[in-house]
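Reply to dn_fold:

You asked what the input looked like. This is it:
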Amino acid sequence: MQCIGKTFFKSVVVGSWLIGAGLSASTAMADDDQVFGWVEKATLQPWDIEVKAKLDSGALTSSLDARDIEMFEQDGDEWVRFRLKLEDQASGEVFSDQIERPLYRELSVRGAGGRDERPVVLMEVCMGDTIYEEQFSLRDREEMNYPLLLGRRTISHLGLLDVRETFLQEPGCGENATVVPHDPADDQS
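and this is what came back:
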């Protein structure tokens, strides 16, 4: 009986040590990632407009508030012309410019109101200290609380998402900021 007790005790100690080491390793891995809240400040590049962004793990593709959206052809390629009307959270000024971007793809969204086709363009957004080139579907989000919604494709590049917190990172992308280009492999997810 005495021998069984010692063996059991050694197994518990070794098992506890292994579990503790595993938790330390996973904690160390998590410490390397930046942590973002479910709402963050972001800046749209190259205009450096600071907006509130909702990080939405329920959406795959990111979405940007855009008005007067129209498709057109330029040099044999499909392009999208749209107007941004965004209040800069840092200055309070309203940014209202017409933008033209190549059409990256079209997105079909099914919702309670039926099917909606949206153009998708590539744009750059600063989150934390890094600029990410990401896919953004364009739609009028005037009635929404957040002009910028970041979906799972974008969130997967950022780091960790803490759904209990907001405003954990300040956008700070200067001239020497790291730029993460769009990865076409993300289109498969």
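Residues 8-30 have pLDDT under 50 and may be disordered.
Hope that clears it up.
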